[in-house]
Amino acid sequence: MEYQRITSIEDPLFKQMHQLMQNVFPPEEVLEFDLWKEPLEDPGIRVYVAIHNGEVVGATEYRYYEDFNVAMTDFTIIGKASLGIGPFLAEKRHEDLLALANANGQTLYGMFAEIYDPYRVEQYEFGGVKPMDPYVRREVLSHLGYKRLDFTYVHPSWNNDGEAVTGLDLCFMPTDRSIVKIKTELVVSFLKRYYSVLSNKPKSWHEMIEKLEAKETVNLLPL
């Protein structure tokens, strides 16, 4: 299996990846084809695909923040079962992030991720691909070392319509597994940076930020 970065919508592999996204994710979760041009050309956003026999069978998007020394996993797609796509993507992403942190003179502190909570909302469907089942994904991410941040998480809609999206947890995977809490300053700074592109955030998001800013640390809990 090959791990290849995509930096242009003109790359034939991107067409395959975008189709895979449409096959797996709900329509409202998939950015239109042409709107991918700028994200793919952004050097800070890393989009990689897993290629098996010339076919895109998986993909992952993530980013590394040098000033925070943390990463964020935007998404991971497993298009087929029984090929080891998930472990392959996780391993290659981890290697890449360690190299980026090392080039920054750091040891990677950890990685954020938003994770669906199917125990609260059960209507998630991911194209019938069993490895993408929310229960499976949550358990896999738990095995990888992700912990749930102990606060009620609100996710601003990427439609930039001011709507609040619930049913997700914000999680963090510390490189040092002995870490049981992180500074809220890091969480708040990260969230403000990550969602800076959205001008129309819901009131509940701002209230969440205010509550976090009143604390010094936030606990990491099991998924």
Describe the structure.
This protein is an alpha+beta fold. The chain has two domains: 1-108, Gcn5-related N-acetyltransferase (GNAT) (Aminopeptidase), CATH 3.40.630; 113-127 and 140-223, no CATH class. The protein is built from six helices and eleven strands. The protein has helices at residues 12-24, 37-41, 85-103, 134-144, 184-194, 203-213, and strands at residues 2-5, 45-52, 55-65, 70-78, 110-116, 147-149, 155-156, 164-165, 168-174, 181-183, 217-221. The protein has a nine-stranded mixed sheet with strand order 1-2-3-4-5-9-6-11-10, sandwiched between helices. Helix 3 (85-103) links the parallel strand 4 (70-78) and strand 5 (110-116). The mean pLDDT is 91.
For the record, the CATH class of the largest domain is Alpha Beta
| Portion of residues within helices | 25-40%
Across the major sheet, the strand order is 1-2-3-4-5-9-6-11-10
Beta content: 25-35%
